[in-house]
Design goal:
- This is Fas apoptotic inhibitory molecule 1.
- One of its GO terms (cellular component) is cytoplasm.
- Keywords: Apoptosis, Cytoplasm.
- Helices cover 6% and strands 63% of the residues.
- It is mainly β and 179 residues long.
Length: 179
């Protein structure tokens, strides 16, 4: 990878994906790697600016690398996810998902709740879940190995805060991480 010009890390529900971009400004070469795997290769592109679109992750999320000339032979590379700048996408994602990281049985786990669909992901796999109404809200039950887990959803009582989600594993609350 001699012409590596940009690297991004994108947190999706199925995990954090590494996107790498090679741009040969003399050869016109463009190569995109997702998690180390080549997904696009174009040689001898005479137009050095433009865009490359590809998919990332299990949900085949649309990603686009924009290549813009800044001045002379300098270029700027920006990544869009689902049509939004990476920054905007991540800001929006922090509002639509909750993420927890925990260590069980000598293994690290990343649990993500998609608030809009109520899908639960663990280490890149969509989990089988069972929802249940309880006195103060709902519980979404699933298992990680032999561990009983559930995500409890309760009203904050404040309109701006909305619903508060908590991950409980073996009757112990796991702190949420900021994405």
């Amino acid at each position: 990878m001699t012409d590596l010009v940009a690297v991004w890390e994108v947190a999706l529900s199925d995990g954090v994906h590494k996107i790498e971009f090679e741009h040969g400004t003399t050869s016109g070469k463009r190569v995109v790697y997702v998690d180390g795997k080549e997904v696009i290769r174009k040689e001898w592109m005479f137009k050095l600016v433009g865009k490359e679109t590809f998919c990332v992750g299990a949900a085949k999320t649309k990603a686009t690398i924009n290549i813009d000339a800044v001045s002379g032979f300098a270029y700027e590379y920006t990544l869009e996810i689902n049509g939004k700048s990476l920054k905007k996408y991540m800001e929006n994602r922090s509002k639509t998902t909750n993420t927890w990281v925990l260590h069980l049985d000598s293994e690290d786990f990343r649990v993500v709740l998609e608030k809009d669909t109520l899908d639960v992901w663990c280490n890149g796999k969509k989990m089988e879940t069972a929802g249940e109404f309880v006195d103060d809200g709902t519980e979404t039950h699933f298992n990680i190995g032999n561990h009983d887990c559930y995500i409890k959803a309760v009203s904050s009582g404040k309109r701006k805060e909305g619903i508060i989600h908590s991950l409980i594993v073996d009757n112990r609350e796991i702190p949420e991480i900021a994405c």
